[in-house]
Queue: 2 jobs
Job 1
Amino acid sequence: MITALTGRRRFSDLSEREVLALAISSEEDDAAIYRTYAERLRAEYPASAAVFEGMAADEDGHRQRLIEMLKRRFGDTIPLIRREHVAGFHARRPVWLVENLSLDTIRGEARAMEAQAERFYHLAAQSTTDADTRKLLGTLAAAEAGHEVKAERLVAEHLGEEAKGEEDQAARRQFVLTWVQPGLAGLMDGSVSTLAPIFATAFATQDTHTTFLVGLAASVGAGISMGFTEAASDDGVLSGRGSPVKRGMSAGVMTTLGGLGHALPYLIPDFWTATIIAIAVVFVELWAIVWIQNRFMQTPFLRATFQVVLGGALVFAAGALIGGG
C-alpha cells in the first residue's frame, strides 16, 4: 500500500525480498557516504579518513552477504527500492553538504547513521508477526550494532589519542581561521568604526530617528564593504584560511551586528535614554571583543583590553566632541 500523503510505501507492506533489497541499497548508500567523508578528510585528517575507509569496506561486506542471501532465496533479480521510497525510513544528509561539515559533525553523523539504522530495524522487527521477517529484521539490527563496534575498533586502530588530538587541534585552527578571525575583524570594525558617526550625529542633532538612520546606513554599508573585501582578498587555497564565501559572510554579518548594537537603542524616542543605553551596549561590545580575542586568538587579556577598550573610548570621544562642537 502507498501512503496518500507522501506517496511512499509502508515498511510493513514490504515483502521479505523487498526488505532485503532495501537493506542492500541502504548499505550501498552508507558505504558511498563514508567514502565521501574519507575523501573530504584525507588531506587534513588522514587518520579519520582511514577510519571511514574501513567503515565503507565493512558496509561493502555486509552488502555482499545480503546480496548472496537474496540470490539464494529469491533469484538473481534485485528489486529497485531505496530508503526514500519507504515511509518513515531514516533519511541521510545529502552528501554534497559534507563540504560544510566540521570534523566533529562528520564523526557525529557517522555514529547517528549506525544508531538510526539499528533502531529502525529493531522497531520494524517488533511491528511484524511473521517469524521469518522478524528474524531477518533482527539480524539486520544486529549487523548495524556490529558496524558501531567495528567503528570503535577502527578508531582505536587508526585514531589514537595523539592523532585525534592533532586532528582536533587542526579542526579548531581551521574554525578560527575561517569563522572566528574574519568575524572578529568584522565585529571590531563594525563596533569601533561606527562609533564616531553615530554619536557625532546623536550629539549634533539630538534626534533619535536621524541617529538611527545614520547608524543603520553606516552598519549595513560597512558590513557589505567588509564582507566583499574579505571574500576578495584571499581565495584560501594558499593561505589555508578556508572558503572565501564563509569568511566574507562571517566578516559581513559581524560588522553589521557590531554597528547595529549601538544604533538600535535610538529607536527609543527619548534622546538621553537612548544614548545611555547605546553607551552601555558599546561597553558590552568592547568587552565581548576582548573576550573573543583572549579566548580564540590567545591575545593576552591586558593587551586586548588596552587595544580594544582604549581605542573604542578614543573613537567614542572623538564622535561626541565633533557632534557637540
Job 2
Amino acid sequence: MKVVRTFPRLLAFALTFLMVLTSTLSSNFIAHAQRRGARGRNRTAGENRASAGTNPKVDQSNRSFNTEVKRMIAEIDQRNIERTVRRLVSFGTRNTLSAQDNPTRGIGAARDYLYNEFSQIAQGSGGRLTVEKQTFEQPAAPPPQGRVPRATLITNVVATLRGSQAESADRVYVVSGHYDSMCTSPTDADCDAPGANDDASGVAAVLEMARVMSKRQFDATIIFMAVAGEEQGLLGATYFAEQAKAKNMNIEAMFTNDIVGNSLGGNGVRDPRTVRVFSEGVPSNETTQEATTRRSVGGENDSSSRQLARFIKDVGDLYVPAARVQLVYRRDRYGRGGDHIPFLERGFAAIRFCEPNEDYRHQHQNVRTENGVAYGDLPEFVDYSYIATVARLNAASLAMLALAPARPKGVGIVTGQLTNDTEIRWTANTEPDLAGYEIVWRETSAPLWTNSRAVGNVTSFVMRGMSKDNYFFGVRAVDRTGNRSPVSYPRPVARSAR
C-alpha cells in the first residue's frame, strides 16, 4: 500500500522536472539562435556578398517577366516561316551574280519579293515600320582574289521599326539574314541554288519577327534586314556596317541568323532545342593600347559581344524554354564567317545564331544524288519548327533589349590605390523611366554572371570587402518596370571621381 500511495507523488515530480528541462533547453536554443543571427547581421555587407559570390545559385539575374513579350513570341508561326522559305527556293537561284530583272528567277526576283513582303507588313504597322532598298555597286574583284567577276549591283532590303521613346529612338538593334545563295562555286550564277537553309531560314525568321514585332512599340529602334552578297564575301553587310559607322549610328547590338534551319546534323544527331550563339571575346577592332590594358587586368572574356550573348541566354532561359542556348565563345566556326563580322570589325557588338549540328551535304552543294545520297540545300531538309524556336529566341531578346535602358557608358573600376574594397563608377543614363543600376559579379573562372546587387540611382558604388583582384564586376541599368540592360564591363581608371 505504501508503494501505491507514493507513485502519484513520484509521477508528479517527474512531470514537473521534464517541463522545467524542456523550457530551459528551448530558451537556450532560442538564445543561441538569436546570438547566431546577431553575428550574421553584424557581418559586413562585403563579407555577405563575398560569400554569395562563390555560389552560382545565388541571385542569378533577377529579371522581371514581361507577359506581353511572351504573347508576342507566341504569335510567331512556323507556317509563315515555311511559306517564306519555299517561296525563296522557288526562284531557282539567288546567287548575287544572277539575273536582276527576271521576275521569276534569280536574285532580283527574290529582292522584289522580300521588299513587297516587308512593305505589306509595314502597311499594317500603323506607320511604325518603314521599308527601303539599300542599293550599291560592288566593284569587280574576279577570282582568285575575289568572287565578283564583274561590277554588280547589290541590294539590302531594310525595314526599320522606329523607337517610341525620344531618349532611346536613336539606339538601334539590327537583326539580319542573307537572301543570296550559292552552289559549289560561288560565281556560278546559272546553276540551281535553292538555299533553303543557307540562308532562306534566317531570312524567313527575320521576316516573321518583323510581322509580329511591328504591331508593338519599343523604346529603341529595331532594324530587320535581308542582305545580299554574303556568299561573295559579306558584301551587303559590310556596306551597311560601313555606312552606319560613317553616319555615327548608335548600333548597340547586331544579330545575324545564318543556317538556322535544321535540327538534324550530318552526324546523325537530332537536336531540336539547341541554338548556338557565337560571340567573340577579344574585340576585332581592339587597339594596341586596349590590348595592353586587357592583358594586364583580364577581360578577354568580357567584350560587349560576350555580354550580349550572356544577355540572350538569360532571356532565352526565361522566355523560350524550348530553346537551349549554347554559348560558343568564339567569333564563328573554323574557316567560316557570317554577316556579324563586318559589324564587329567596326566596333559594334554582334553575335551569330546557328544550328548545333550542320549537315554539309546540304550547304554549298550542287543539287544531285550520288550513291543514293541527296546533296543540295533543299527545303525537305529543313525543320520549320526549329526555325520558329530560333525566331522566338531572337524576338524575345530584341524586345528586351529595345524595352530596356541602354547599357551604362563610361564604366570604370578604380585602381589608383591598394584596397580590399572595389569602387566602380559610370556615366548616368538619360532615359526618363530609369530606376537605377545593378552591380553584377562572378568568380574569375566563371563563364556567366552569378550574382547581382541593386545599388540605386547612383553613378558610383563601393563593394566593401570584395577585392577587384578576386572577382569580375559589371554594371547594368534597370528601368521602373524591371527591364535590364546588358552588362557593361569596366575599364581600369586611376582615381575616384569624387
